[in-house]
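User: Sequence in, structure out. Go.
Assistant: Echoing your sequence, followed by the structure tokens.
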Amino acid sequence: MQSPIIDVTIQNVREVLEQSKNQLVIFQFHSARSEGCQQLTPVLTAIVQKYPQQLLLARVDCDQQQDLAMQFGVQSLPTVMLIKDGRPVDGFAGVETEQAIMARLQPYLPKPEDELIARAQQFLAEQNPAEAYPLFKQAVDIAPERADLKVWLADTAISLGQLPQAQALLAEVKLADQDSVYKAVLAKLELALEAADTPEIRALEQQLAASPDDNNLKEQLAVQYQAAQRSEEALALLLGILRQDLNYGDSKKLFLDILAALPKGDAVASQYRRKLYSLLY
């Protein structure tokens, strides 16, 4: 693995600047005669070693590379410049704390949710939305302000038939964030909702409306709901039956089968699992 620290000379400076297209380059102008430089060096070294893929520490010895320091307009030591895409984006003169430096670097460092997103997208590429769902869910919990994460989670929920969750997530996306990806997922949701409203379901709903206490109809409708991936509605019907009779027909088995089919971390599964436990215990 390439070292995240490089000594810069007039001969390799163009190559280092070119590297700033791939990662943030921290130019550190230093001198062995400067106490401030001696204080700053271990701090910068520790930071880049934590993020070797995102950061490169480019150290310029101003005692040896005076012409280079002049080209960069360095007037005092220590001086630090942050270079991205060949241009300075930030910097400071003097000694700063690690906390202050990290605040400057934050826009260029991976966010806590980024690893979760990468893993989730890999599962989606493998046609495995059930494994992607809990990872996107964790990412949304970490960064609830990110509309793009809610759209990805909604899209995954649709693939798993979790249509109410998808509706709720998309409803939280503000107008300014409703981009082409959002519109595509919304269209996918609308198609899924239409497909989930089958003639069999409509017929059973009408029968149940006429006989609201008929547990046999409720159980049949729950089976149809689950077949159309309307899990939450199926669970609600079955829970109503179980509250009256824990041993009615196949209701408990159907209920547990639906819970088992829901993805890990699903909020509906957690909610109805707690409700069942309260009945059992």
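User: And one key feature?
Assistant: The mean pLDDT is 93.
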